[in-house]
């Protein structure tokens, strides 16, 4: 009796299993006919994404170009000065243009302004120094001493624009260097989420703008160049050239290799982000280690005399009181 029940139960389980298997097979075979395939739609969206980005960035770039042209109209006086002093040849100086781009000044307008200021600054400083020495102070010194002061002022006026430009480059590079590891982390997250490099750079530029507007500007410009330049490699190289930082150039090299050979970008970005963060930490440790030698001279000049005065003054007072 029990044996018959077991056999019946086994047969029932086999029948149920066979029925479930047949139903599953029928469902798997007929599934594409019941569920719509969105693969072709997604492929079309991915194919059109780059074109939409190109059109959007071109519209933004055209708007910026119009605004930039309106801002440059009042600088017509500078252009007249450049033409009068025959400085038009220096407009094609690649080194000067590169330095101005590194400082955040782009286009022909800043070049004309820089050349005009560098031409006018020596004359202005010479006139001011002459008026100050000969009219205001009326120094009772030999004439060659007074002329030497005015010539030195004119020399300072000639090199002052270069000094200002170098300071701007240094400040801009320092700001980008501090924010670059965080930007790489954000770029890594965007790439690993499946975003394209143009969309990832645009997203990082929008997010990093509150921390470093200079880096956000450079990334936005790179996104625009990726949209309208024929050679995408040139857009990456321009990013490294504008910043002038080794960390940025390393990432640019990885991006170029990924574009050319199709290598995975996430692993390279993770390694480079860690390296840049280690470099930033090592620079902080270096500055911290350099503090004790720098504090030695102030301590000798300001702390030790006061300490000696506090220690010796009571003894001196007691000796004077004993007399």
UniProtKB/TrEMBL annotation:
Membrane-related topology note: Multi-pass membrane protein
InterPro entries tied to this protein: T2SS_GspF_dom
Main location: membrane
Cell location: Cell membrane
Pfam families assigned to the protein according to its UniProt record, in alphabetical order: T2SSF
Keyword field: Cell membrane, Membrane, Transmembrane, Transmembrane helix
Domain Type II secretion system protein GspF, chain residue ranges per copy: 184-312
Transmembrane segments: 12-35, 111-137, 143-165, 295-317
Domain of life: Bacteria
Protein name: Type II secretion system F family protein
């Amino acid at each position: 009796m029990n044996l018959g029940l077991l056999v019946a139960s086994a047969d029932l389980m086999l029948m149920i299993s066979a029925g479930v298997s047949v139903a599953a097979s029928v469902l798997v075979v007929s599934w594409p006919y019941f569920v719509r395939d969105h693969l072709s739609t997604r492929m079309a969206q991915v194919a059109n994404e780059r074109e939409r980005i190109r059109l959007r960035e071109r519209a933004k770039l055209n708007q910026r170009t119009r605004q930039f042209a309106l801002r440059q109209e009042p600088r017509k006086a500078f252009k007249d000065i450049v033409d009068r002093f025959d400085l038009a040849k220096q407009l094609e100086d690649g080194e000067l243009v590169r330095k101005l781009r590194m400082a955040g000044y782009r286009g022909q307008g800043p070049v004309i302004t820089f050349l005009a200021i560098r031409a006018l600054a020596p004359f202005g400083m010479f006139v001011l120094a002459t008026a100050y020495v000969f009219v205001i102070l009326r120094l009772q010194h030999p004439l060659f001493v007074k002329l030497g002061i005015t010539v030195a002022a004119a020399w300072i006026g000639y090199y002052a624009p270069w000094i200002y430009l170098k300071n701007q480059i240094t400040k801009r590079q320092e700001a980008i260097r501090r924010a670059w590891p965080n930007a790489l982390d954000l770029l890594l997250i965007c790439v690993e989420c499946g975003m394209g490099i143009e969309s990832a750079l645009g997203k990082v530029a929008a997010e990093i703008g509150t921390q470093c507007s200079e880096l956000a500007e450079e990334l936005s410009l790179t996104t625009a160049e990726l949209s309208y330049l024929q050679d995408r490699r040139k857009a990456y190289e321009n990013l490294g050239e504008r910043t002038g930082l080794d960390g940025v150039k390393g990432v640019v090299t990885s991006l170029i290799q990924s574009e050319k050979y199709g290598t995975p970008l996430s692993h390279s970005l993770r390694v480079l982000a860690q390296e840049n963060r280690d470099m930033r930490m090592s620079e902080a440790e270096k500055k911290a280690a350099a503090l004790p030698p720098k504090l030695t001279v102030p301590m000798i000049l300001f702390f030790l005399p006061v300490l000696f005065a506090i220690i010796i003054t009571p003894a001196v007072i007691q000796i004077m009181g004993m007399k």
